[in-house]
Design brief:
It is a single chain. The chain is of the alpha/beta class. The protein has helices at residues 29-36, 39-42, 84-97, 112-123, 141-148, 150-160, 179-189, 226-239, 253-261, 271-275, 279-288, 291-294; strands at residues 9-11, 14-16, 20-22, 49-50, 67-70, 73-76, 103-107, 128-134, 168-171, 193-196, 200-202, 218-221, 244-247, 266-269. The strands form three sheets. An eight-stranded parallel sheet has the order 3-14-13-10-9-8-7-4. α4 links the parallel β7 (103-107) and β8 (128-134). α4 packs parallel to α6 and α9 crosses α11 (279-288). It is globular, with a radius of gyration of 18 Å. It binds ligand RRO. Ligand RRO is lined by residues 25, 53, 76, 78-80, 134, 136-139, 198-199, 219.
Length: 295
């Protein structure tokens, strides 16, 4: 029997038309609409839209240069530029609510109390289908601690769980030896789903042999991380009983299938969208092809 890989999936009670979503921060749909018009929505390739990560207060982001590109991958040091939660709610939320897909809002903070402010504010908004707790940004030091320590993840989720009935997705870092330990702790604390991988801490050198990025180092994504992501997604999916969103180097329909085979319920396209904004639409078409054509 052949599986309908590009068919509908249930994600934490949220019906998705197919398993392909975007990775947070890799597809700015508001900018795309401004540049290309409403056609962007008519052929929207994602079954759910994940916002760029927001923080309690506005942030300017890291000093330039913020990107390093090679054929095998990309290192970013964006540093969470965003309008802050109030700016997001006032300026972006209504536009994102118009998308033909459920909205997942990604949040990051530096303490459980600050995370709580974000989760409570979003919890009141019907436009928000789920909240992604980003504990894995490589470009803000304090963001990583929770994502590296099972005990911290357990405590954070324990503090956030009572604040909302919306699904809480915990976005994990690959910068640990055993990510499944953090995943198990997050689920024990009340997480409804796990997403991984975020980017790998990296330091590209420029022509002068000194760090290229303004912040010194950043996070690696793209084809170079694909096999590492496959291993970590598989390990986490085997360790937890909640849905897993898998991502890392997805560029073709066969890469989505591999992550679904590893146990993911949904798969995110990230870096590929920077190189080609139409990548996700192509990947979805490939996923719908008969298996023989897929690899
Ligand atoms: O903004 C960033 O620098 C960033 C974030 Br929030 C993240 O989660 N992962 C990443 O590679 N960069």
């Amino acid at each position: 029997m052949t599986r309908e890989l590009a068919g509908p999936v249930d994600f934490c009670g949220i019906p998705l038309a197919h398993p392909i979503i975007n990775a947070s921060g890799t597809f700015d749909v508001i900018a795309a609409k401004r540049a290309f018009g409403d056609g962007v929505l008519e052929h929207f390739p994602f079954s759910a839209y994940v916002s760029k990560t927001i923080t309690p207060a506005p942030r300017a982001g890291n000093p330039p240069p913020r990107l390093w590109e090679e054929p095998e991958g990309m290192v970013n040091s964006i540093g969470l530029p965003n309008k802050g939660v109030e700016g997001f709610l006032a300026a972006d939320l209504l536009q994102l609510a118009d998308l033909p897909a459920p909205l997942i809002v990604s949040v990051m903070a530096t303490s459980a109390a600050e995370f709580g402010v974000l989760v409570s504010a979003l919890s009141e908004r019907d436009e928000v289908a789920a909240i992604e707790i980003n504990v894995s940004c490589p470009n803000v030091y304090s963001g990583l601690i929770v994502g590296e320590q099972p005990s911290e993840a357990l405590a954070l989720l324990g503090a956030l769980r009572p604040l909302t009935t919306k699904p809480l997705i915990v976005k994990l870092t690959p910068n640990v030896a055993v990510p499944e330990r953090v995943a198990v702790a997050a689920v024990e604390g009340g997480a409804d789903a796990i997403s991984l991988i975020n980017t790998l801490k990296s330091t590209p050198l420029g022509p002068a042999g000194t760090p290229w990025l303004g912040a010194g180092s950043g996070g690696l994504s793209g084809p170079a991380v694909r096999e590492l992501a496959l291993r970590q997604v598989g390990a986490v999916a085997r360790a937890v009983a909640v849905p897993v969103i898998g991502m890392g180097g997805v560029e073709r329909g066969s890469h989505v299938r591999d992550l679904l085979d590893a146990g993911a319920t949904a798969v995110a396209v990230g870096t590929a969208s920077f190189r080609d904004p139409a990548a996700a639409a192509r990947i979805l078409r490939e996923l719908a092809e008969p298996a023989a054509v897929l690899r």
